[in-house]
Amino acid sequence: MKQSQLFAKTSRKLSESEASKNAQFLLRGGFIDKSSAGVYTLLPLGLRVLEKINKIIREEINAIGAEELLMPSLIQKKYWEKSGRWGVDVIYKTSTGTENKDKKDFEYGLGWTHEEVISAIAVKFINSYKDLPKAAYQIQTKFRAEARPQAGLLRGREFSMKDLYSFHESKEDLDNYYEKVINAYKNIFKRLGLKTLICETGGGDFTKEYTHEFQVLNPAGEDTIFYCEKCGFGQNQEVYKPEAHKNCKNPIQSGRAIEVGNIFKLGIKFSEAFGISFLNKNGEKKPVIMGSYGIGPTRVLGTIVEEFSDEYGIIWPETVAPFQVHLVELSGKDSDGKVTKAAMALYEKLVKNDIEVLYDDRDASTGEKLNDADLMGIPNRVVISEKTLAAKKIELKIRGSKKTDLISEAELIKILQK
Ligand code: ATP
Ligand code: MG
Question: What pLDDT, on a 0 to 100 scale, did the predictor assign at position 332?
Fold first, then answer.
């Protein structure tokens, strides 16, 4: 991709309405655009990152036998009434269209979670123990009327969620699957470069049992967690009891954290409300036991920026970077066009080798180009200038390190293909 052709541009300006690091860098770097409080566009660069996050999530969730589907966002009132959640604070309700005023079918709540919809589907396909277990997930936009949207992508009113739902014949089978999901989540967050702590917390209106959150220690987080690095103990402030950590001598630490994932054993609350039952081996009718498991990909995107940046901008982990390499042409006076020609040739060669490259072909000053490269945070920066041409080399700098290396083109391609 040539940088001169990007739909969005970088900006020097700090946004006054945004206090968080992720919002500032993502806005300035041309990754997102703000539409209203807690509502953002993912510009092409931001979408590239989000899709890499989603790809990792899909690979790991598919690996534990769940199938992807896509449920509606527009969800009729009757579904929410069945579970008793038509009255929750966060639900956005559609206002009745004028021509349909008298039709009660016209009332919808925008999807803020999908237990109701998946339950209404599952009841059609689950009849016998032979139909169990089952698991399905989606990656979809959720809507929540958050009282205080804040910290950029960390708390939005419209945001992306991966929500997975599982259906089981017994508590043991749910427990086993729950462990599988925990492992899948560990793989996901590791691949995303995020160090997570698993913390117990309350189940809200879902369940009386503890649920588990995947938390990233970070001062931008809204949660406070108590944890032990030695024994793996973790509890959210909401439920923290010091005596729960009695068996370990290591002192408890606490810190602010961002909740990137949350998993629940739902039990039979929704299967009862929606009548999801099955005939067991003895021909007895039993309610299906459910679990639900969320990750917020847009919150994850914001968290990655909170975790990986310096004073100049973002430092993307290789696994989610919008491009692998930022090729910066510094043509200076370059009266005979030699530098441009060499940069173009390298660009084409990288593309041919399936390396994702953003080529800064813009007519801009050296300072502007290098500052933008730091702001945008692509992991490998390659400079081509009269100086590098004279040395018959290219200059490679890893974002976040101070050192630059003069290497050959062949060496570069080898490094990038590793
Ligand atoms: P929180 O405690 O932060 O309000 P939650 O417990 O209500 O979130 P869930 O309903 O479990 O969240 O949603 C699953 C995941 O979706 C969360 O772990 C988080 O990553 C993401 N998420 C939830 N609310 C938001 C939001 N307003 N903006 C961005 N991501 C969100
Ligand atoms: Mg939560």
Answer: 81
Which whole-number Å values give the CA distances from 93 to 88, 192, 352, in the listed order?
11, 35, 50
What the block records as the tokens of 1 is: 């991709």
The pLDDT of residue 291 is 97
Per-residue pLDDT at 98: 55
DSSP 242: G
Cα 272 to averaged position of ligand 2 atoms, centre (Å): 24
**Type of residue at 40:** Y
Helix (H, G, I), strand (E, B) or coil at 40: strand
pLDDT at 101: 61
Range of the domain at 236: 3-73+111-310
pTM reported for the whole predicted model = 0.97
Calculate ∠ Cα 99-101-102, nearest 5°. 115
**Residue 141 alpha carbon to ligand 2 centre in Å:** 17
Tokens of 278: 């099955």
Query: Residue 181: what are its φ and ψ, rounded to 5°?
Result: -65, -40
Domain count within the chain: 2
Q: Could you list the mean pLDDT of each consecutive 10-residue stretch along the chain, which spans 418 residues?
A: 97 85 97 97 98 98 98 96 96 74 76 98 98 98 96 98 98 98 98 98 78 97 96 96 93 97 96 98 98 98 98 98 98 84 97 97 96 98 96 97 96 92
Pocket of ligand 1 contains residue 57 by CB under 6 Å: no
If asked whether residues 386 and 329 sit together in one domain, one would say: yes
Q: Which residue has the tokens 């982990």?
A: 317
Q: Which helix (H) or strand (E) holds 264?
A: strand 253-267
**pLDDT of amino acid 99:** 58
Residue 296 CB less than 6 A away from ligand 1: yes
Q: Is residue 331 part of a domain?
A: yes
Integer angstrom CA distances of residue 369 from 14, 236, 362: 18, 44, 8
Same domain for 269 and 342, yes or no, is: no
CA-to-CA distance for 222 and 257, rounded, in angstroms?
6
- Is the minimum distance from the CB of 163 to ligand 1 under 6 angstroms? no
Q: What is the pLDDT of residue 130?
A: 98
Half-sphere exposure (CA, 13 Å, Cβ side) for 346?
A: 32
Per-residue pLDDT at 204: 73
Beta strand 158-168 with 134-143 is antiparallel
Question: Considering all CA atoms of the chain, what is the largest pairwise distance in Å, rounded to the nearest integer?
Answer: 86
